[in-house]
Specification:
Elements: E1 3-7, E2 13-17, H1 24-30, E3 49-52, H2 54-57, H3 65-71, E4 81-83, E5 96-99
Parallel strand pairs: 1-5
Antiparallel strand pairs: 1-2, 3-4, 3-5
GO biological process, one term: P450-containing electron transport chain
Family: Belongs to the adrenodoxin/putidaredoxin family.
GO molecular function: 2 iron, 2 sulfur cluster binding; electron transfer activity; metal ion binding
């Protein structure tokens, strides 16, 4: 089974199973990672904002216009910011590393 790593604000890393076909948001919620996901993955908020490790960013599908619009609402946006609900795990993403954005 693919794996992925979440990096907490304090730098703590948590490697978890990342079942194929699930979103980063769903995986976070299954593993008690502190990501809200207020709209439950319907692309209507930015509360599942994650920062992709730069070495992985180029392997992701392009950001949709709708996702870009929602990212504009996110705090602490970076060049590798994405919404966890829009990132679906595939074999190619085995090992994906994402950081939770710094809180205000």
């Amino acid at each position: 089974m693919p794996k992925m790593t979440f990096v907490e604000n304090d730098g703590t890393e948590k490697e978890v199973d990342a079942p194929l076909g699930l979103s980063v948001l769903e995986i976070a919620q299954r593993n008690d990672i502190d990501i809200e996901g207020a709209c439950e993955g319907s692309l209507a908020c930015a509360t599942c904002h994650v920062v992709i490790d730069p070495s992985w960013y180029g392997k992701l599908e392009e950001v949709s216009e709708d996702e870009e619009d929602m990212l504009d609402l996110a705090f602490n946006l970076t060049e590798t910011s994405r919404l966890g609900c829009q990132l679906i795990i595939t074999e190619e993403l085995d090992g994906l590393k994402v950081k939770l954005p710094d809180s205000l």
